[in-house]
Amino acid sequence: MNERLRVLLVRSVFLFLLSLVLVAGFWYHREFYQIGFTNLLIIGGFVTFLVIWAARLAMSGELPRGRPAGEITCTLEEGDRLLRRVARLVVRPTEGTSFPPVGHVLRGKYDTGPEFARILIVDARRAFLSDLTEAEARDAGYRTAAELRDAGAMRWQWRPSDLVTILDVRALGAGR
After folding, report:
1. Answer CATH for 71-174 from 3.10.20.600, 3.10.400.10, 3.40.190.290, 2.102.10.10
2. Which of 15, 27, 164, 173 is deepest in the core (most CB within 10 A)?
3. Half-sphere exposure of 71 (CA within 13 A, CB side)
4. How far apart are the first and last CA of the chain?
5. Which of 25-34, 69-78, 141-150 has the lowest mean pLDDT?
6. Phi and psi at residue 121, in whole multiples of 5°?
7. Contact present, 102 and 165 (Cβ < 8 Å)
8. pTM
9. What is the DSSP letter of 145?
């Protein structure tokens, strides 16, 4: 079975079971019906909305993490690779930039301006540009380390002796 279809089916079954529990809860607490129809609709609708909203957040794995602690600017191609989960590493010059600690969320923005996602920093390390491996380059969405170095040289005028920050990131979804 297609992975996407299976996930949709599991989530739908979970929401259906949640709906049954909510209806059973209202039947069990039939005293609520004594407060009047309008009050029941407003209060019950609000409580039901909160429960379904919380379940949806929990199932998506994107629980709110507060305000972003900063932002990271990406090219259109790099942002697209992060959103499609083709790339999981972002390589940036160390000099003149600062990133929040691991576990914080950044606002991912295209260099053309709009926000495309919230980015969770999973891991961070520093290395010399000349020490980047082929595997790290592939994880950053490039075919070879030379291609990554060339892209950085065009964008930031990198030299092989430059120190770079390698961020292991995860896109949390579309921007707000």
Report:
1. 3.10.400.10
2. 164
3. 14
4. 32
5. 25-34
6. -85, 115
7. no
8. 0.62
9. H
